[in-house]
Structure formats: C-alpha cells, structure tokens
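REVIEWER CHECKLIST
Item 1: Sequence provided? yes
Item 2: Single chain? yes
Item 3: Sequence as submitted:
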Amino acid sequence: MTGFEINGASAADMALIRDWADEEGWNPGDSDRFAFAVADPGGFLVGRLRGEPVACISAVRYGTGFGFVGFYIARPEVRGQGYGIRLWRAGMERLDGRLVGLDGVVEQQQNYRKSGFRSAWNNVRHEGVPRAAGEPPQAAAPGVRIVDAATLPFGQLAAYDRRFFPAPRDAFLAAWVGLPGRTALAAVRDGRVEGLGVVRPSSGASRVGPLYAATPEIAAALLLRLAERTSGGAVAVDVPDAHPRAAALLGGLGLTPTFETARMYTGQEPDLDLMGMYGVTSLELG
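Item 4: Structure as written out by the authors:
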C-alpha cells in the first residue's frame, strides 16, 4: 500500500464526503456537514492514495463513553484492495474503549458483525409527500402548540434530545436545528417539549430527522408542517422498525419504504425512548 495515508478531513474534504455519500444514494442533507464538523472536528478521516482522496469514514466521539461510525466509503476504483479496511481500523481505534453505534447498509452488515457489532433494530427510510386523511390539523392535540424550536430555551431541547440519544451532543444539536435553510419545529404542552422535528434540503426528497413525539398525532402534525416548508413537499424519514406504530403512521400518510439500514452496537443496546422516536436524526452520526 505504498503511497496510502490517513489524515483528518479538511473543509473541502467534508464537501467531497457529502458528494460521495450522495453518489451512494444516501441522500445526505445539503448542509449536514457543518453540524457534523461541530460534533467532533477530529472525527472525520480521509484515506489518500498518492495524495488523492479515495476513502473516508467518520468516527465521532460523544461524551466520554459513546461513539458513532458513518460515511464509510471506498471509491469504486479502489475497492477490494485493502484501503477501506485500513481506514476502518483507524476509525475504530479512535473510538477504542467506547460503546460504538452505526447504521449499516444491507451489503455491509455481515462485515460489521465480524467486527463485533450486533443488530438492535432496522431503520427503514419512508419517502413521499405526506397527506392528511382530511384537512391538515390545526392542532396536534388539545393543549399542544407547534412552535419554532428556535424560540425555546436551548436547554429544554437538549434535555429532550437526551431521551433519544445515548450521550450529550449539545454543540451538534445547536448547529443541527439552527443552520440556515432548514426548519426546526417543536410541540409544546404546558411548557413541556413533547415533540421535535427538523427538515433540511437534500438533493432528493428533503430529509426529516429527528422526528420525536409523545403521540402519533403530534408526530403527524409535525411532519405535515415540516413538509409544508419544503419545495414540493416530498420528505424522507428514517423510521426505526422497533416502533411499529411509527411505520404505520408514515404509511398512512402516504410515504413508502425505499431504503434500509441496521442500527448496530458493539455492546449493550442503549436505553432509548424508541416509542417516541418516529425518525432518527441522521444515519451518519446517529
């Protein structure tokens, strides 16, 4: 492997990684990389062959005990030559000693199992233009208001997010909900956050994630309002199949399955509020 080296991603590399993911058909958000870089600036690695980038991986540290792997891509022309596995080992070494999660595409899941990962659930992407059974609801439920998430104290949003993610990720979350061009809405009842949804533009259907809600009615209200903020209304939501009512809800709103990954962990599955999770935040960073 003469001429192959691994180093941290530059800003230009982050844009390139996004383009590679798009070519793989993953439809990443147009501006996701700006929030990703905030999450862990050293967590994105690029493999270069004689100076040219040919592979990438993210190995992002959260808190002191959790990590997440994503963006594991080797360019087609170098696959099967060992460059990808070298990058994989470098990423996993960066997360040594932590519980590690990932969302694995179907064709790679057996390889991840060989590396010590075990399946927890599947995330099934549902896409389409959501439609209400009748007129769009004026309220998600009695006493619930749908508001701009930016109007809420950030501590409330961060505390709510911790129900659905194994570690604090305040810097990432602040960027994720606040980047220009995207919409973040929250459902509030009596001062409590009971739902959160973010939609951001992508090259295909606009990506929705997270989509958290206390009830299916709140989830539907958030999704319908988020879709109104997109050009054309088509959205894509990655839904945990461990929450059957979530898939049923999105199917009832007219969205259809198009893509599947497995959420996998190296150890004990974290205790998350899966029954409130109607869409994961990101397949790349959890």
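Item 5: Key structural point noted by reviewer: The radius of gyration is 19 Å.
Item 6: Recommendation: ____
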